[in-house]
Structures are given as structure tokens and as C-alpha cells.
Amino acid sequence: AVRRFARRLGLPVVHTFMGKGILPDSDPLSLHTLGLQARDYVATVVEQADVVIAVGYDFVEYAPWYWNPNRDKRIVHVDVLPAEVDAHYIVEVGVLGDLALCLEQIGEGLSPFDQAWAQRARHTVVGGFEAELAVAPTFPIRPQHVIRELRAALSDDDIVVCDVGAHKLWMARMYPCEVPTTCIISNGFASMGIGLPGAIAAKLLYPPRQVVTVTGDGGFLMNAQELESAVRLALPIVALVWRDNGYGVIRWKQMLRFQRVSSVDFGNPDLVAFAKSFGAEGFRVAAADELGPILKEALVCGRPAVIDCPVDYAENQRLSERLKALA
Fold this sequence. Notes:
Layout: H1 2-9, E1 13-15, E2 30-33, H2 41-46, E3 51-55, H3 64-67, E4 74-79, E5 91-96, H4 99-108, H5 116-133, H6 143-153, E6 159-162, H7 166-174, E7 183-185, H8 195-205, E8 211-216, H9 217-222, H10 227-232, E9 238-243, H11 248-258, H12 271-277, E10 281-284, H13 291-300, E11 305-310, H14 314-324
Parallel strand pairs: 1-2, 3-4, 4-5, 6-7, 6-8, 8-9, 9-11, 10-11
Helix pairs in contact: 1-4, 6-13
């Protein structure tokens, strides 16, 4: 319904973390993901909007004061529930009911819009991501390069389940998603540890599809015992563990707020040996150019697999500095 509505009227679309795939990222009207708690590329174009049609919007994902700080946007609230009360979410028009039916009826009363602004906005967002990917690969691997290799290894219908951590922020903003419910992200009041059991559930529901959980080492260890379930159920899922030997997103937030860190580092077991002790496969990435081939091998090995992938989370701070410089 959102796709038909947007394409009929020529309206650009942004989505929250849990809305990935509602419009293909390759669509000319897609402005990708809004939700990083910083002024990201997409935030700079949302700032220019005078009217926002919020469809199924939940404050828990991204508070309205992030995207409407001046309280100057005219808001159309479309949902099955009335809008929450908030000083930065003052609804001019509220439409309650079945979302598809509501959007169809709203669209019948509107004429197509000039897409020139949408084209400029998409150029801003896509250009920012392309500039990040243009940086030469290094080891440990930068988050954006891990995402590029993962996307290349999977088809559009394959499923990625994100655990909670710094990797979730990178996946939400940069993982290209073409099909709904193929990038599943726990967001809002989200707790760590969903990745592995979530991947097990996805594989049980969709046996023909490849399923990968993208998880940090912290989130992985919070539910790593579920490897036993995956082995016992003979589910060939892949756990891609972004290892930084710490709680990366907490370190990132502490640095942004306090310019120092406290109690975020921890040790890890040998993740390859750990996986094999359960009867799963284990792989370790030792160079940037190894990740792609290892992903492909893990996806066809026919058993649950764990990939130990060292990541360069210094890129978190570098991203924050780049975004501060946005005009």
C-alpha cells in the first residue's frame, strides 16, 4: 500500500529501522532509513519537508523531537490508533483505520507532486553512502565494508536478523533492502540477544531462504547456547559476529557524551572452537579480502555456522565526525 501510494503521487519515502523494505532501497523515491540519533544524510532532507505523512509511526523507534525539533512540520497521522500526545508531534489531520484503505482514499484526493525535490534529496542520501563505501578496505574491517560483502552474498529474498548493538545502527542505515521483512531489526526498547533465536525462527518459517544473523560479540554471547538448538534442529543458519571485544554502541555513546569510556571491554572465547564444540561450523576472518569467500562457504556448508569477523569500530567516531560536518 505504501509503495502504491508513494509511486502514484511521486512522494519520497523514509522509514524507521523496523520499516526496512517497505520501499526498495533502489527505488528512486526511497530516501532510506531515519533513526540514527545524529544528523544523518536522510535527516538533512527531512528537515526540508513542510508536510509529513506518518504511516504507522511509533515514537519508541525514533522520538519526534529528533526530526521535528522546531515543531514546524504539518503532520498527517495515519494509523490504527490515535496519535500519542507530544509537543513535537502536533497532528493537523488524523486518519484512523486500515492503513492500505486509508492510503488509497487519501491518494484519490491528491494530484502527483513534482519529483525534482525527491530526486535531489535521494542524490544527497545515496551520495553520502557512496562516499563512505569508496574508502579503501582495511583490517579489522570497517562496518560499511562488512555490509557490502554481506549484501553481495545474499539474494533479495534472503533474510537478515539483526541483534542489538552498534552493528544494528550500521545495518539499518546502509544495508540495501529490496523486499519487506528481509532485514529484521529489533528496535525501540530493544534488548541484546535476539539475533540467534530470531534467525532460528526465521529459518523454521522460511526453510528455502538463506538466513544470517548479524550480531556483535556481546549480543551473541548473551544467547550463544541457542547454537545447540540450531544444531539439534539441523538449521543451516549463519551467525556473522562483528567482534570488537566490547560493547561497541555503549562505547560510542559514552565517547559522544563524556569523551571517555568506562566498563565496556570484555574478553571472548575462541569463537571458532566454541562453535565447533556445539557441532556447528566455525570460520575466522583474518584479512579484509577473506570475508566474501568465507560468507559464501558458510552459506553452503549445510550446517549452522559462526563467523568471527573483527570490525573496526573506530569508524563509529569517524562517522560522528563526518555527520557533524554536514551542511
